[in-house]
Design a protein that fits this description.
- This protein has a single domain, classed as TorD-like (Orthogonal Bundle), CATH 1.10.3480.
- Helices cover about 65% and strands about 0% of the residues.
- It is built from 11 helices and 2 strands.
- The chain starts with 18 loop residues before the first strand and ends with a helix.
- The relative contact order is 0.16.
Length: about 240
């Protein structure tokens, strides 16, 4: 896969799209560059945080390059995003993790860190695990709230858990894209702000756990970069919605 100097490379076929339109198909129009960069960065991070299947491992260098390129261009567009390209670049240590462990052990380490454990994974990628109010009733309330948020803005998920981090990140990308396609970016920026504030504020808690418990240095960097980027993007949206 060749790299490009322009964000228009947009290798959509590289992603397992988890979110689809549940209503009408939107008329495609070109997004402004800032929105496109934000949408693609959320999309790339969503892909990288997700389980690395064999095909993903083979394309990992490309995925990381696209993410870093998006971060660099976004940083050039606004001072709010200062330093995200450096933290994004640190995520290339994932490649060293793969080289050090080999593919099978790398994938097994991912599973033992983020997916399996007793009584739960050391660093689960589910919002409900970081709720201050634990319990089945609260978990169900969280899932219902997120699912309703998805439905309200015309998104649907198939065979996925609503509070799974890759799904939540892809949903923000979806909101950015839909706002541009509908010609109503302000409406959808408020939705992004609301979703980040209420459903991605747990990222720093995840990062603290990853720093303490994750043996994959590249993922420590990636989760840290994700937390950093989402915080800065929240500031960007806050600034836009107040003007």
């Amino acid at each position: 896969m060749e790299q490009s100097d322009s964000i228009t490379l947009n290798p959509k076929s590289a992603f397992r799209n988890r979110i689809r339109l549940s209503n009408k198909k939107l008329k495609g129009i070109s997004m402004n560059e800032m929105a496109e960069l934000r949408a693609m960065l959320y999309k790339y991070i969503s892909k990288l945080v997700d389980y690395p299947y064999d095909d993903d491992v083979r394309k990992m260098d490309d995925y990381l390059s696209y993410m870093i390129q998006s971060a660099e261009q976004l940083e050039e567009k606004s001072e709010i995003y200062k330093d995200i390209s450096r933290t994004a670049g640190n995520s290339r240590k994932i490649l060293k993790d793969i080289e050090r462990l080999g593919v099978d052990h790398f994938q097994a380490e991912y599973v033992s860190t983020f997916e399996l454990g007793h009584p739960k994974a050391p660093c689960p990628l589910y919002e409900r695990e970081y709720s201050r109010q634990a319990g089945a009733e609260k978990d169900l309330e969280t899932l219902n709230e997120i699912t309703q948020f998805y439905f309200q803005y015309g998104a649907d998920i198939e065979n996925e858990t609503a509070d799974f981090l890759p799904v939540e990140l892809e949903f923000v990308s979806f909101l950015i894209t839909r706002g541009e396609e509908e010609g109503a970016p302000e409406k959808y920026q408020k939705a992004q702000l609301d979703f980040i504030e209420n459903h991605l504020s747990w990222l720093n808690n995840l990062y603290q756990q990853v720093k303490d418990r994750c043996k994959l240095i590249g993922y420590v960097c990636l989760i840290g970069m994700t937390d950093n980027f989402v915080r800065k993007d929240y500031q960007f949206l806050k600034q836009r919605t107040l003007t």
